[in-house]
Amino acid sequence: MSLDKGKGIIPRPADAFFRRRDLPLQPAGSTSLTSDPFVPLAPSSAPRILAVEISPSALRPLAFRIFTKKHNLTLKSDALTLLCTFIGRRCGSGWRDSGSGEKLLDEIARTWKRNAGAGGILVDGGEALKAVLNGLEVPAAGVGVGVRPRGREWTFDQVNDGGDSQMGDEDMMSTHELPGGGGGGGGRIDPRKYLKVVNAFTQPKWVYNPLKKHFERAAAKPSLHLLLPPPASKTFLFKHRHHTLHQRLLRNDSFLPPTFTRTTKHSSGTTSATSATQSHYIITPISHLLGQHSSTFLLFGILTISPSGHLSLTDPTGSIPLDITYATPVPSDGAYFCPGCFVVVDGQYSEDPMKFLVLTIGMPPCERREVSAEIFGHVDFLGTGVTLDTNSAQNRALRRAEIAVPAKMVFLAEVQLDVDRTFDALRAVFRVYEDDPPLVCVLMGNFIRTPFGGAIVGAGGVQGAVQYKEYWDGLAILLAEFGNLVRNTVFIFVPGDNDPFTATFSGGRSPAVPRENIPDIFVNRVKRVLAASVGAGSESGSAEPDTRGGVWTSNPARISYFSSDIVLFRDDASARFSRHAIRFPNSATNNTTTKGEEDTESMDLDASPPPSPPPPIPASLHLSRKLTKTLLDQAHLSPFPLASRPVLWDYAPHTLALYPLPRIVVIADVGIDRFAVTYEGCHVVNPGKLVVGEGKMAGWVEMEMREGRGTVKEVEI
């Protein structure tokens, strides 16, 4: 380069040649190629799937395993041809090796069962299947199935030009959008849109079919005459419980037969399957005991009291008396065994006299919610549009939204409005949440101390009804003092046994469950206060119409919140279990020794000292674990004889069932202390009595929905 004094550096022709030139802007969609090294290469397009033609014979084994074996569906030939075309265009040549074809078939089967219901067992190639296929797409090989947005449908007459088979299109959604419009576009999610209270009398009735081995929607609705259903409903009540627990029991690892057995070759040249020890347990029906004197069996049935007054075990095939002289409960003092409970019994059969000598007795093992979802994930048990399948795109999106939204639920029980200290306790609790209101506040009965129609109506029915309404008017005045709490919280009211009008006919005894909500004539002022506060708030437009003015539901009831379901039940179950529990003689003698044995043990100086016993469990915690295990193992809220706890025959099979296992169970029992325990992934809480400590403290349970765990709270009144 030459240097000119006072004028700086003068570029030579070679410098001008190697200097980078200003390039013209390329169009956004240009794909023209150039040899200029300074022109950036166009971004590589997403890989495209080359459509292939799949023969029905190649897809039939996989479709049979998914549709028939897993989902109990029958696939017709025209539907199989339609699936071959769809999977060939969507998954390409790697439909078998990558596993995308199997995942797509599984999602198609689940969507079909959600849309068609219990009646859609036969899958044909009609418009129903085409509608299912139009809403599905495969984002990529080995990735879960997503949902096609509205406005663009795939037809079977299209030519595969690459537009529909391209993976990663911008107009395809790889994740499921939240229903209700609350989660799209990255906006703020309103949890009230995903909160729904399910009344027991509007809950869909799903019954288990032991022949088809899946749940079906009941064809006939429950009888309108609640107290006079057909006689077959009573027998079906116990058969349904038996079939549900029996199929759950057989799926337990201890009762599953092995896939392979060891074979032994004899000297004669024959082979036989042998096993050193029994690899699994086998349940024997009671009718098969005849002629098997002095043989040991494992039975499963319900504990009943025979007409002669003896304890018996009953299953659909028969009944047999039990001899519990040497019976040992498993676990020892870990559950309540009472008539009305289903149990697993191990013992010896005797024909003279005919009885079954029980050696061990235990509860049928519980099953986690995730395990049940693998079998019945397609069923929408609550009728809210959310199935049990945790792997579906919709449920995964709902679960992510539930974790992202900070929300709390508060549970209070035994809110006796005819006690002055109750209003002081409510005021203390509401003051805690005035600045940080929870999403839901559940108030559970009894709302009066004495049954409605009893002492409260001693001076006349009209006067008693007026007094009961005045108690609720006092609650309305109290709620009006906390405007911020009422505007941002959904109040749910669950009645107790003393509330009208069921208590009028029970006379203080346990009324039949499920029971209706409190009549509107008593609570209309509370509804006006809640509705006016919600209407005056800035977020009133986000509240669902059925939550304005509070929710007055049945007992029991259920809450559907995103992908979680919560069971609400008010019942003093612990006291009833204690009254009807069976006392086993052998359980008390296991820990007793004679005086001679004690002297012998004390003289054995060479023996090693016994290990120190574990620290004792508090009595309140032991009772809470005992109650929790009994209810969840029985998969029922009221496993009692009908004489001690009557139920409505048509509504009890599905409204009182705890199968599949819910995420949260709120059992309001004032007979034991408040607790919050977790068993097999299900969190069980008991808010206890509101006013405790001789009227000086208020107690309740707060549930953090992000973590799904409850905390026992107390505040001084």
TrEMBL record:
It comes from the Eukaryota. One of its GO terms (molecular function) is DNA binding. One of its GO terms (cellular component) is epsilon DNA polymerase complex. Residues 410-669 form the DNA polymerase alpha/delta/epsilon subunit B domain. GO terms for biological process: DNA-templated DNA replication; error-prone translesion synthesis. Residues 586-616 are annotated as: Disordered. Its main location: nucleus. Keywords: DNA replication, DNA-binding, Nucleus. InterPro entries: DNA_pol_a/d/e_bsu, POLE2. The keyword DNA-binding applies. Pfam families: DNA_pol_E_B (PF04042). It is found in: Nucleus. PANTHER family: DNA POLYMERASE EPSILON SUBUNIT 2 (PTHR12708:SF0), DNA POLYMERASE EPSILON SUBUNIT B (PTHR12708). Belongs to the DNA polymerase epsilon subunit B family. This is DNA polymerase epsilon subunit B. It comes from Terfezia boudieri ATCC MYA-4762. The lineage of its organism: Eukaryota, Fungi, Dikarya, Ascomycota, Pezizomycotina.
